[in-house]
Design goal:
Elements (H helix, E strand, L loop, with lengths): L17 E7 L3 H16 L2 E3 L8 E6 L4 H20 L3 E6 H6 L1 H4 L6 E3 L7 H9 L4 E3 L22 E5 L1 E2 L10 H5 L3 E2 L2 H13 L4 E5 L7 E3 L5 E3 H9 L6 E5 L8 H9 L6 E3 L7 H6 L6 H14 L4 E8 L6 H14 L3 E6 L7 H5 L6 H24 L5 E9 L6 E6 L4 E5 L8 E9 L3 E6 L1
Parallel strand pairs: 1-2, 1-3, 3-4, 4-5, 5-6, 7-10, 10-13, 14-15, 15-16, 19-21
Antiparallel strand pairs: 8-9, 11-12, 17-18, 17-20, 18-19, 20-21
Helix pairs in contact: 8-9, 12-14
The protein binds 5'-deoxyadenosine and iron/sulfur cluster.
Iron/sulfur cluster (SF4) binds next to helix 1 and helix 6.
């Protein structure tokens, strides 16, 4: 890796510099991208500002995954319009919406800059040019950009947990999904730069590192001399850095997850026993139309393998209700799959048509909105019940928890997570963020384990 000029982990707040305000929507990858953006701008002489009324530059890092994510950002433009009336500021739209809508966004009177996910190195230049009242756009996608040499500046950090992007883009063609179009082709990041970033975090007392990618199982680094590094190898390299630092990863693509990854997880105590395993639907007919590369049976086989190799593994999922042509029987298959797997948790969505995706071009979005909502609500109610039961099974058990900070409800209580990714709340007892403690579960809700220190 080339010597990096980006070294600061924490924001440098300096009122004498140009002030940049950054707002982030969407996934963890986007949160991490905003940290890369801040790093680039800090290097170019800007300071982070948390007060929009003091900003010289407002940047919004956007998400296109569902229509409602885009609507929220469009709603924010009215707020920026008011700021713009008061003084001269630059408003930039970054990320997935910038990539999807391109010039269409640039026409908006409030927007000065449109920059796609691979254009962030260009931002200092774009901001200078936009300051001369000339709108700027860069939505060129790259086959190489991984921002490998840029040390993300951690915003809104609890100082304990941090993300590292290990790859960008996605080569899958799930028919409902906008991601391959807005984030481009898949590329793996140089493992040396990943290890260097992890070491910097550890030197700064971080205790948990989450490795991020759209599909981490297809991580595959090829070096100049023909050497390769797989995801299982990368995971092991990061886990070996410090046994007191936890490692997590997300997201796994069901039939790409290798047994080697499971065995590596089982071998290292500090690799967290949690797999986010998006199923999307329990119906084979829907899985085919979604262009997922597995069947229901194949998915369930992977679940059995996970539970065989890592018996105490937390498993969570994503699911979409009301995809094109979904019949009551297809929906019933999703319900029965949820009952069979008994996930620890799930992110549940109703299908939202994304323009120009395979599904938008080939299938009719024919499940009425009320039916989508009813099916989604049925899945949510079922999963809430299962999550509650799963948590009730934990009552009386002792877990090692990494403390992340004070609980939202009370200053005298702390929150932390188990290796399996369950949130625990317990009395502070003189402990603080970044420490490990053993806690015993005394009661629970569907979302939280209520614990005491042991
Ligand atoms: N509509 C609804 N949900 C979607 N997801 C992705 N695309 C769509 C869409 N068009 C969900 C999937 C994915 C998660 C990140 O978002 O479940 O795993
Ligand atoms: Fe993340 Fe996908 Fe949303 Fe982009 S569209 S921010 S990749 S979830």
């Amino acid at each position: 890796m080339a010597e990096s000029k980006y070294t600061s982990v924490k924001p440098v707040i300096d009122a004498s510099k140009k002030q940049v305000y950054i707002e982030t929507y969407g996934c963890q990858m986007n949160v991490n991208d905003s940290e890369v953006v801040l790093s680039i701008l800090q290097q170019a002489g800007y300071s982070l500002c948390n007060d929009i009324s003091k900003a010289d530059v407002i940047l919004v890092n956007t998400c296109s995954i569902r229509d409602n994510a885009e609507q929220r950002v469009l709603g924010r433009l009215d707020v920026f319009r008011l700021e713009k009336k008061k003084r001269k500021i630059i408003v930039g739209i970054l990320g997935c919406m910038a990539e999807r809508l391109k010039d269409e966004l640039l026409k908006h009177p409030v927007i000065d800059i449109v920059a796609g996910p691979d254009a962030y190195r260009d931002l200092p230049k774009l901001i200078v040019a936009a300051s001369a009242d000339s709108k700027q756009i860069n939505t060129i996608l790259s086959h190489e950009e991984t921002y490998a040499d840029i040390a993300p500046v951690r915003m809104d950090s609890n100082g304990v947990t941090a993300f590292i992007s290990i790859m960008r883009g996605c080569n899958n063609v799930c028919s409902y999904c906008i991601v391959p179009y807005v984030r481009g082709a898949e590329r793996s990041r140089d493992p040396k730069s990943i290890i260097a970033e992890a070491k910097t975090l550890i030197d700064n007392n971080y205790k948990e590192i989450s490795l991020l990618g759209q599909n981490v199982d297809s991580y595959n680094w090829k070096g100049e001399n023909g050497e390769t590094v797989s995801f299982a190898q990368l995971l092991e390299m990061v886990a070996q850095l410090d046994p007191t630092v936890r490692v997590r990863f997300s997201t796994s693509y069901p039939n790409d997850i290798k047994d080697e990854v499971l065995y590596t997880m089982a071998r290292y105590e500090n690799i967290c026993k949690h797999i986010h395993f998006p199923v999307q639907s329990g119906s084979d007919a829907m899985l085919i139309k979604m262009r997922r590369k597995y069947t229901r049976a194949g998915y369930l086989e992977r679940i059995s393998k996970i539970r065989e190799v890592i018996p105490d593994c937390g498993i969570t999922t994503d699911v979409i209700a009301g995809f094109c042509g979904e019949t009551p029987e297809d929906h019933a298959d999703t319900i029965s799959l949820f009952k069979e797997v008994r996930y620890d948790g799930a992110f549940m969505f109703q299908y939202s048509l994304r323009p120009n995706t395979l599904a938008a071009r080939h299938y009719e979005d024919d499940v009425p909105n009320e039916v989508k909502t009813a099916r989604l609500n049925e899945i949510i109610a079922l999963q809430n019940q299962i999550s509650l039961e799963r948590n009730q099974e934990c009552i009386g058990k002792v877990f090692k928890v990494l403390i992340e900070g004070a609980s939202k409800r009370s200053e005298t209580e702390l929150v932390g997570r188990t290796s399996s990714n369950k949130a625990c709340v317990f009395p502070a007892g003189g402990h603080k963020a970044g420490e490990y403690v053993n806690v015993k579960v005394i009661s629970c809700s569907s979302a939280t384990l209520i614990c005491e220190l042991v």
